[in-house]
Amino acid sequence: MPQAQYPDLAARLHFVEQTLAALCAVPSVESATISADIPLLPGGSSNTLYSRPDGEILPIDKRAAAAFHNIAPDYFKTWGIPILAGRDFDQHDTADHQNVVLISQAGARKIFGNENPIGKTLLISSTSTPAEIVGVVGDVRSHKVAEPDDVELYRPWAQQNFPFLSIVVRSKLKPDAVTKLVQSALATVDPRLAIALPQGMDNIVAQALGRTRLMMWLLGIFAGVALLLASIGIYGAVAYTVEQRTGEIGVRMALGAQTMDVLRLIMAQGMKPVLVGLIAGLAAALALARLLASQLYQV
């Protein structure tokens, strides 16, 4: 957002209200919101320092950090994040009223244990701004797909915002079609603004999973090569054994042994090393199960 046109919090808030109204007027848009970041987008999320005001107040350099989001109305509805306790932000949560925050369930448990966090105060950011907790929401995965963040804090756009924002739209249309609709709605508010880097959430998740998928592909390729080499080795060993015992096989068949009898004999003796290797491989697989589980999600 141009600093000249949107120099302060009030101007940016007015823009957000107009933009959301324009988006909600589009029939194919189920819900829309605006925030300062997008979950899982590289470099998109931000952190803030926090501390409890009761007891020993830690110095700034020793305080813990939490994932932090400045959000507009309908944020939780658009993302499908449940409000587990307390309330959502409302029209009264403005800059001239009490600072408020919402906290994730894991964050409430980490900071307050079994205490009820509703109504308690946190000191947030390096300025130690006191903010009252008015609600608890479900845990999300802002930084990693593998696990949710320990603490997530949400603050209303009307109380704090910056000239960098992300528009989030829930719709059944394809991303390209949604982008055109959003650009048209945005043009009715401020035709000088354009959308940068429009992406569907499926694409963002795929990018976040890129490294893990590469590792799994490499693991599968190496496993396939190992299986091929093992098969070639077993074939060579059995073929060599049969070649060395050609005379013995001929004598057995001359004495009345059937072809299937000879085949069973060769297979029984040739598969013994395979069975030993299979047992050893299963034992090793069980030992490496935890390592493999670290590359999977919710397994």
Q: Structural class, judged by helices and strands?
A: alpha+beta
- In what order do the strands lie side by side in the largest sheet? 2-3-8-5-7-6
> Rough shape?
elongated
Query: What percent of the residues sit in helical stretches (DSSP H or I)?
Result: 40-55%
- H/E element string? HEEEHEEHEEEEHHHHHH
Main pleated sheet: 6 strands, mixed, barrel
Gap between N and C termini: 42 Å
Rg over CA atoms, rounded to whole Å, is 31 Å
> Can you count the beta strands?
9
- Please report which band the strand proportion falls in: under 5%, 5-15%, 15-25%, 25-35%, 35-45% or over 45%: 15-25%
Tally of separate domains: 2
Average of the residue pLDDT scores: 85
Number of helices: 9
User: Could you name the ranges where pLDDT drops below 50 across 5 or more consecutive residues?
Assistant: none
Description:
- It is elongated and about 105 Å long.
- With 299 residues, the protein is of the alpha+beta class.
- A hairpin with a 4-residue loop joins strand 6 and strand 7.
- 22% of the residues are buried.
- The strands form two sheets. Strands 2-3-8-5-7-6 form a six-stranded mixed beta barrel.
- The protein folds into two domains: 191 residues, no CATH class; 84 residues.
- The mean pLDDT is 85.
